[in-house]
Write a structure and sequence with these properties.
Elements (H helix, E strand, L loop, with lengths): L3 E2 L2 E3 L9 H4 L5 H15 L9 E10 L7 H19 L2 H14 L4 E9 L6 H8 L22 H4 L1 E12 L3 E9 L18 E3 L2 E4 L17 E9 L5 H12 L1 H5 L3 E5 L2 E3 L4 H11 L1 E2 L2 E2 L2 H18 L4 E4 L4 H4 L9 E7 L8 E4 L5 E5 L8 E7 L2 H10 L14 H26 L7 E3 L31 E3 L11 H14 L36 E3 L8 E7 L6 E9 L4 E8 L5 E9 L5 E3 L2 E6 L5 E4 L3 E5 L7 E7 L8 E8 L1
Parallel strand pairs: 3-10, 16-18, 19-20
Antiparallel strand pairs: 1-8, 2-7, 3-4, 4-9, 5-6, 5-9, 6-8, 10-11, 12-13, 14-15, 15-18, 16-17, 21-22, 22-31, 23-24, 24-30, 25-26, 25-29, 25-31, 27-30, 28-29
Helix pairs in contact: 2-7, 3-4
């Protein structure tokens, strides 16, 4: 009998291995898989049940012969696909087919089993949309965490076979089992057209197990309670799977865990409301999960998570309900308790951000640029029904942003107004809780060289822009600290840079967005990089006084130097005046800099620099009109450079760093 069914037709367009759905989740597979699976389970929580949703991750192995239809895949379907794609000479698809064959013929095969409990299981509509649907899903609650239908591809991204089996026991519609493979299209020459057409029969890439097969007890024997099991076949060999899933659970479902909406068991590790505090404290103290050492990026993200946990749990936390006047102003707000804002003062690892989440308790995104001088962290938790429906409409497919561009024209303006009001409410509450009421200064390291910031224009002293950009810094006291003479290892360098740059953080006055840390990839492949690559200028002719190009200086761009951090501050953008603040943990005789902004055509351009001067005693020199050099740089001592560009308006820029020769 045939196990696998691949729908198709004559003359269809074939699909290769780079399907858009799976590609969405390939950047960080453990995190993507964890987010998508857990949000689906939370959405399926049994109403009226006090117990939290429980999700278990188990790492198992399976023999190839236990995978239903294994012989058919190896001896029939795979050879047809190989012949078809060799004719097309598509390297990516051929590589996938090679991996598929290698994994399916190996013993044993890794398998991840994900099971949820205290859930409804999959009813008929849920099951049909999961197994057969594309780019939509059926949810029982209009406030659910997910609904785009894209997340169902996440388990396939974790599978070298792109094969997942589903077993479910539903509260309404009984037991169900299905197998799905996100394979590739292939030509089936056994199919012959009855109308004389010469077109080939091309299958779709997505296949499923026949309904007539007998399901092995291996996939059904452990399901006694309502809920759903996922079997991810041919699990990709990613190091520290277990630890990375745990980290993803903590970073993405902190609010759900704290509010007893979720319990997660990964192997023999249990994370729930009762164990959360000890778990977080242990990781904070050791920067390890088991024997796994967190990377620098993972540490920074975890520190944020821990700070948000303090906002939820500290005895010193402040809690606010939303303003009463919003009830009349916004139709989707029914009462002031429709959402809470939690704030805490955190001197050790402040995020200076507000984590935003909805009823499910899954992190959506962190709102920044709230206050750069107060060391705080916050959590916004929306629980109201209509408010959740409203915010859900604004979420992108990855559920990590709220965008008013997703609204229709008639509602967009109101949505923009609400998000803006929410942002300014955050700012006001942070200032109300932790700002200085009697004029006493807030201590902030190293701010003496940052002042003055943007001064008010004549006649505008009482006007306030409602744009989210704060133009002045006030009530600042200077607290100088002696720099340590040396940095001995990579972690120490990173900590030193992070500490100093955090202490001079100005947030609202920062014109760089994510700044010159440039964590995103070139070309805008990351949300942290909005600018892409600029002009390719490996070198430039230096100039001596009088403009004679008599000295040749080679500028070699350094991509994301780990020894350097810098910020760009708006001093007086109406007159083109900005300030560069930087610090290096390695001795450099001199470095070069330029500044880029993005044009309407999407290309990054180097800005024309009119003047440059040092506020820190460093020797600076213009090289042409696009670059300048800074000399006499000292380890762990910041340099402050004022520069003027030809633009007479506020410009969002990033700094580009060069090492110099000549």
């Amino acid at each position: 009998m045939k196990y696998w069914e691949f729908p198709g037709g004559f003359g269809l367009t074939p699909t290769g291995s780079n399907g858009a759905g799976i590609e969405t989740f390939l950047d960080n597979i453990p995190m993507s898989l964890t987010r998508e699976v857990l949000q689906n389970s939370i959405d399926a929580h049994q109403k009226g049940l006090d117990a939290p949703v429980r999700v278990e991750f188990k790492f198992e192995t399976i023999q190839a012969k236990e995978i239903l239809g294994e012989n058919e895949l190896i001896n029939d379907i795979l050879p047809k696909a190989e012949r078809f794609w060799k004719e097309k000479n598509n390297a990516d698809t051929l590589h996938y087919l090679e991996t598929f064959k290698s994994v399916l013929t190996s013993e044993p095969i890794d398998m991840l089993v994900i099971s949820d409990y205290n859930t409804t299981g999959l009813n008929n509509k849920n099951f049909a949309s999961l197994i057969e649907g594309d780019a939509y899903s059926e949810k029982n609650d209009e406030t659910s965490a997910g609904s785009k239908g894209i997340g169902k591809a996440a388990p396939f991204a974790a599978s070298n076979l792109r094969t997942v089996f589903y077993n479910s026991k539903s509260t309404n519609d009984g037991n169900k089992f299905a197998g799905v493979i996100n394979f590739v299209s292939y030509r089936d020459d056994e199919k012959v057209s009855f109308d004389g057409s010469t077109a080939s029969y091309i299958t779709q890439s997505r296949g499923r197990l026949s309904n007539d097969i007998e399901v092995p007890v291996r996939f059904t024997q452990n399901r006694q309670e309502y809920g759903t099991d996922l079997f991810v076949m041919g699990l990709k060999k990613i190091e520290n799977w277990k630890e990375k899933i745990i980290l993803a659970v903590l970073n993405n479902f902190l609010v759900a865990l704290q509010n007893n909406k979720l319990e997660v068991i990964v192997g023999d590790e249990k994370i729930n409301q009762l164990t959360l505090s000890d778990y977080l404290k242990s990781i904070k103290e050791t920067l390890k999960i088991g024997e796994y050492n967190l990377s620098t990026d993972e540490r920074n993200t975890f520190y944020n998570t821990y700070s948000y946990y303090l906002a939820l749990s500290s005895e010193h936390k402040k809690i606010f309900t939303i303003p009463e006047e919003w009830i009349e102003e916004y139709s989707f707000i029914e009462d002031t308790d429709n959402a809470n804002l939690y704030l805490v003062l955190d001197e050790e690892h402040p995020t200076r951000r507000v984590l935003q989440t909805r009823r499910s308790g899954m992190t959506i995104f962190e709102r920044n640029r709230i206050n750069g001088s107060i060391p705080f962290s916050g959590v916004f938790y929306a629980t109201g029904h209509k408010l959740n429906v409203f915010l859900k409409k604004l979420e992108n497919v990855n559920h990590d942003n709220w965008s008013t561009d997703r609204e229709d024209d008639s509602n967009r303006k109101k949505s923009e107004h609400f998000l803006k009001a929410l942002y300014h409410w955050y700012k006001a509450k942070v200032e109300e809780c932790f700002g200085s009421e009697d004029g006493e200064a807030i201590k902030a390291f190293g701010l003496n060289d940052l002042l003055p910031m943007m001064a008010p224009k004549d006649g505008d002293a009482d006007k306030t822009e409602d744009s989210g950009i704060t133009s002045r810094v006030s009530n600042v006291a200077i607290k100088e600290k002696a720099s340590k003479p040396s940095v001995t290892d990579e972690d120490s360098e990173s900590k030193t840079l992070d500490r100093i740059m955090t202490e001079i953080e100005l947030g609202d006055g920062d014109s760089t967005g994510s700044g010159s840390e440039r964590k995103g990839e070139g070309g805008g492949n990351s949300s942290d990089n909005q600018y892409g690559h600029g002009e390719d200028e490996p070198g430039e002719q230096g100039e001596v006084d009088g403009g004679d190009s008599s000295v040749s200086v080679k500028f070699t761009e350094v991509n994301n130097p780990d020894y350097l951090k810098m910020k760009i501050i708006d001093v007086d953008s109406d007159n083109g005046m900005y300030r560069l603040i930087g610090i290096t943990t390695k001795r450099k005789n001199r470095l070069g800099f330029s500044f880029q902004s993005i044009g309407e055509n999407g290309v990054a351009y180097n800005k024309t620099i009119k003047e440059v001067s040092s506020n820190s005693g460093n020797l600076v020199k213009l090289h042409g009109s696009k670059k300048f050099s800074v000399e006499d740089l000292e380890i762990n001592k910041r340099f402050v450079i004022d520069f003027t560009i030809e633009d007479r308006m506020r410009v969002k820029m990033k700094g580009v760093t060069y090492e110099l020769k000549g």
